[in-house]
Write a structure and sequence with these properties.
This protein has about 80 residues and is α+β, with helices and mostly antiparallel strands. The protein has three helices and three strands. It has one domain. About 15% of the residues are buried.
Length: about 80
């Protein structure tokens, strides 16, 4: 059982580190808030959360690719939130 606990703790650390990288990358593409985080939601998967609004990470980065300057406006972000 201790081995499973240690493995779970290690996997959780990996998850936290990956989410931190996603949030830092997302922050580069908005200029209207500094409250960006990343979280896993069981029904939705990995999401970018800005203030109280939540958007699928895939959707967020698709919007980045479609943006002319790589920046996402607050209105566009909120329109694509879940």
């Amino acid at each position: 059982m201790l081995k499973k606990i240690n493995r779970a703790a290690f996997k959780y650390s990996d998850y936290i580190a990956a989410c931190d990288k996603i949030a830092r990358e997302a922050q580069k593409h908005i200029d209207w808030s500094d409250r960006v985080s990343c979280e896993y939601y069981p029904a939705d998967g990995i999401c970018v959360e800005i203030e109280e609004h939540v958007c699928h990470a895939f959707t967020f980065f698709e919007l980045v690719e479609e943006a002319k300057d790589g920046m996402i406006s607050e209105t566009l972000y909120i329109r694509n939130c879940i």
